[in-house]
TrEMBL record:
<dbReference type="Pfam" id="PF13563">
    <property type="entry name" value="2_5_RNA_ligase2"/>
</dbReference>
<protein>
    <recommendedName>
        <fullName>2'-5' RNA ligase family protein</fullName>
    </recommendedName>
</protein>
<dbReference type="InterPro" id="IPR009097">
    <property type="entry name" value="Cyclic_Pdiesterase"/>
</dbReference>
<dbReference type="InterPro" id="IPR050580">
    <property type="entry name" value="2H_phosphoesterase_YjcG-like"/>
</dbReference>
Amino acid sequence: MGVRAFGEPHLNLRAPFSAEPSEAALVDSLRSLLAQTQPFEVEVGGWRVFPGTVFLECHLSPELLALHDHVLTLPGAPPQPYDQKEYIPHLTLALGVLPWARDALNSELLQLTPPVSRFTVSALSLTREGGGEVREIHTFPLGKE
């Protein structure tokens, strides 16, 4: 299709947010929140598109909903408009799809079978977006206290 992705495929646990605490404070808070979290399976639905973004919608399992609600309790990082009832779990595959490519890409995607039907989440990462790049701040392996 001649399309390249920006960033690694990723599953957002909540909408992007601006946080008051420092990165170190966020890492400490998340470490505490995730201490008992075990690896979990996510079931993939189908292709979806936001403007400029290609993703696979994921089913909102009870485990994923509980984790979403859990990370919304981070101090200094209140829920955003696409959190809570508006949260759509999805595996982002490509960001920055240009408007001129959008229609052709969408038409081709709808004819394709998603490459996976489920996957296991074994680690979670705190990232920061800026300047067109996603930078990993810290990764938390799951099931390892």
